[in-house]
Amino acid sequence: MLQLFKFKGGVKPATNKAQSLVEPVAVAPLPSHVAIPLHQSIGGTPRPIVAVGDKVLKGQKIGEADGWISAAVHASTSGTVIHVGPQVVPHPSGLTADCVVIEPDGRDEWIARNPVDYRSLAPEAVRELLREAGVVGLGGAVFPTHGKLTAAKSVPMEEMVINGAECEPYITCDDMLMRERAVDVVRGAGVFRDLLQPKRVLIGIEDNKPEAVAAMQAAVRATGENFEVIAVPTRYPAGGAKQLIRVLTGKEVPASKRSTDLGVQCFNVATAYTAWRAIAHGEPVVSRLVTLTGNVDKPRNYEVLIGTPMDELLALAAPRSDTDGILMGGPMMGFLVPNFKVPVVKATNCLIAHSDALFPPKAPEMPCIRCGECARACPHELQPFEMYWFSRAKNFGKTQEYNVFDCIECGCCSFVCPSRIPLVQYFRFAKSEIWAREKEKNAAETAKTRFEFKQFRDEREKREKAEKLAKAAAAQAAKKAAEAQAATSAPEPVAPSPLDADQAVKKASIQAAMERAKAQREAAAARNTESLTADQQHEIEAIEARRIAAFGTDETTEK
Amino acid sequence: MDFSTPPYLLKNASVTRVMAQVLLALVPAIAVYAWLIGPAILIQIALATMTALVAETLMLKVRNRPLALFLTDGSAVVTGWLIALVFPPLAPWWLVVVGTLFAIVVAKHLYGGLGQNPFNPAMIAFAVCIVSFPAFMSQWPNQALHLGLLDQFQVIFGLMPRLDALTAATPLDALKTALKLDEAGIGVPALLANRNVYGSFAGHGWEWIALSYLVGGLWMWQRKIITWQVPTGFLGALFLISGALWLYHPDRFASPLFHLFAGGSMLGAFFIATDPVSGATTPRGKLIFGAGAGLLTYLIRVFGGYPDGVAFAVLLLNICVPLIDLYTQPPIFGMKDGK
Amino acid sequence: MISAIAVMALGAILLGAALGYASIKFKVEGDPLVDKIESILPQTQCGQCGFPGCKPYAEAIAKGGAEINLCPPGGAEGVRRLADLLGREVKALDAKEKPKSVAVIDENTCIGCTLCIQACPVDAIVGAAKQLHVIIEPLCTGCELCLPPCPVECISIEPIVETVDSWKWKYPVIAITPTDTPKAA
User: Domain A18-305 - what CATH class?
Assistant: First the structure.
């Protein structure tokens, strides 16, 4: 038996998981429309590649990944694009972001799905495939998974942790996933293992999920893998990546380091599952399991299309009449969505119908009495009350000195605070202020250097102008003198002036460059046209025609 | 739209609950006190509580703070009870009132109210009164006389002449005076043999009250109201220094057992030095804070000018809290090997 | 008497020598105060303070010739930080505080005259003669210096819209100050 480690702090709120575990996972019906935010993962915002009126198929790419740390976004059902533009998204700000809204045609028709044998591909190609399939961390952080699948150069990979802890109260989607689809989870973990080549693979599951542990153990046996399925003590936030790594390996990953620097990496079980679906079934991430629970009559887990409006989804669970809001995520780290119509996104693991009876409004905040409960509850062993004093006083330098950026915002400190101070809120405030100031400072520095360079350039230009004028004046004088001399001597054949020669050279080089560019264009046009279908040929011709209509042909516009 | 913030689940904790449990932990000691020394303590507690609440109300009004919220937090009541418990039970009524007023108005609210006071308000009250009214503050009841509730009431409110026979010194005071008067002396063990003054091991009657404080304190530790560091540091330091000197010269210095249970040691270790607002906050800091207070208590007691040293020791350590906290910040997650 | 004077004189000479040595040994190059002030200024180079750029303004403040409340882009926060640094009184900003903005060129009106390019202090406008000019948004400081030279008034200043990415968590509301308890009732 593996020796387990402990992390300090943590709390034990009532788990409230049993309610939504009674029924098996059901597939949610097609919604009236899906609104798919383009920005669903950390990193660059994908660019929309569809326009209003386009017909799309389920799984068709609608947003192109922007930069390496970014993942593609796909249509979650077949239908017609009816809107591309800002929509309210599930974000605590209540602001809008660009979305692609699709009206389903009801057929839910897939694109051509091409399973691949990832073993025959280069690791680089597998990472690219995951990026194109929109595979991101489904535990809540939505970090593009392919970005985590590279081992550190100098540190050998020791362990890979698969996170099935699911420590937040109410949420059961990972539990149900492991119970019902354990084999695919294990196979997905196998893909990650092959890419990272760790010595051991550890699957951590909180010990309040014995069924999931048993299912995963059976799946590991069935697939012949040597993964270790380990039940870890139930204590929030044992499912935080850093806490689970600590419990299973004894390693502590500080905020300033990547876990691969310590030879360990962590993935959520749902991420492993979607990675396997993408590779073995050619299905990009268009749906996920969502727990519907809280103030509802029929709590249950559903397989939900990304973009499904939350009110339509929650209606399946029959919310009670006093429901006054929807919590996305768990009650510890989740937030109330700005309105009921916002879409389900990849980060949506759970919707909890909120009512004052279930989550009583907070009693008024009292002054801090420095009792230190928060410091004892903090899993990162910070001193929340000290950070609170400083962030409250907007003394951000000091807040940072007390390591506010090591805070994982798990909410343990707020949970135990007898003065009911919204500590996490203060830390989020401090963090975003510090970031904003950092950005402003960088912008100011850039502006300053650019301003100084412009001044320098202006000076230089002035100087050069003056020099040129002086030279020209001198040349003028010399020419006059020469003319005076020429008048006296015999006339000579006029040689081309150096100025003319210069121009001729320049002209020739421009001509050459234009020729090169033309040649390149032609070469580009001729690529990959050998084995085209008739349809594709038509399409190309149509595009060419449009281009010529818009810009004229190369020959006519070139001067 | 409800803009309340995560987490939406909160533990059932409040300042009121914390304070109520502190009060509950004091109840056994108060019961023993009333039983062995006399019901006067109940009168003093009532006086101090009422004064504290009135002063709190006035100050909250002046400072424009919500009354209901802060009056029910229980912090003023805790301060009042502690003041009553450290003052002589037969002290005139105005002494407790003045002490409590000073504690609530000056030591607490002028510094910003709940959570902001750098000094322990109850100890400020004690220090102010023992400096200003040293005579009244050293008149402890003569346990040879057993007065009823009515008599004690009359003494406190000045309706009965304050006879010298009513009062006596505390065991700590008596021992100190005896040792001073008789330098060549009969020695501590012989002095302590006087059961009427020094009881079984640390003062007639008082030792059982101290024991009840210990019981209440352990209960608070078990309920996680306090942590082990401060009491351990306090009692540990007191034990070590008194033990060392006792071994060195048993005739001149009382035993550790006597010092642990005499005077305000137990009350100080579990109820006063553990005040979170004015105390150190880091685990190591608490240990240092407790040990410092225990050590100073002993030094003041044995070598200083006052019969007991808990109040001044705690106040002096209160001053050091920012420094202690600064230098005892625990390493954070992932940063333990100093990288 | 004589010896006392001698001792005092000797002391004065020694201390004077020490001070003189220190002033040479620990001489500070340049004026670090100007740099500190400049690091607080927002570097928009807009000249709204009446000085031709942030550095001249910083120098003027350091010399004591300028008030600290003349920088509108720095806002009240900037005034407060300057007051902190210099130990001066915080003053109200001498202008209306504006939200952070960027310049936007109306593509239909721009005639490609390059005048704004020359005016831009931070080279945030690109374009060539008779070509449409474009503002590089991340580099634009919103200084408004490109507005006056434009002959066709095609440049407008637009406040930066808050997006999900630039959104900041708000300061938690403290509910202690009111005299009545809001939720306990």
Answer: alpha beta
